[in-house]
Amino acid sequence: MGINKKALIILMISLVFAINTAYSAQKETLLQTTSTWDNCAYKKIKIKKPEVTVLKITIGIGEKLPMHKHDLVNIAYVKKGILIVITDKNEQITVKEGECLPEIIGKYHYGKNAGAEPVELIVFYIGQQGTPLSVNK
């Protein structure tokens, strides 16, 4: 029983096409960083009992959050709106819809809505289990 070379080539081309078009999922790197937005490098992180928390936070038009700090790593994704983050030393950054913010650690700051619609954030926190997500000043 011989192998029909033409049929084998057609089968191989069909398989390659099927494999390359079997799904339409796409990926886009939104953030890859080794530091917070104020250029403080992440230090080696040792977590004995890691806990991951994901929050959806909505900040109303004209609203600002209280002055606070984070003692753990967190990344905010701006799903909608424009957010300005201001430190107690008056450093600031503006983050727009579709952008990510690698939050500062251990420094007091607050966020405020700088747009004409509510700001929607998806925030990912990674830290020691039981660590408060934020501490108000």
Structure description:
There is one protein chain. This protein starts with a helix and ends with a strand. The strands form 3 sheets. The protein has a 4-stranded antiparallel β-sheet with strand order 1-8-3-6, with no helix packed on it. A 3-stranded antiparallel β-sheet has the order 5-4-7, with no helix packed on it. By secondary structure, it is mainly β. It is elongated and about 75 Å long. The longest helix is centred in the first third of the chain and has 16 residues, at 5-20. The chain has a domain at 50-136: Jelly Rolls (Sandwich). Strand 4 (82-87) and strand 5 (92-96) form a beta hairpin. It has 1 helix and 9 strands; from the N terminus they run αβββββββββ. Helix content is 12%, strand content 37%.
Helices and strands, with pairings:
Elements: H1 5-20, E1 50-59, E2 68-69, E3 73-80, E4 82-87, E5 92-96, E6 100-102, E7 109-113, E8 119-128, E9 135-136
Antiparallel strand pairs: 1-8, 2-9, 3-6, 3-8, 4-5, 4-7
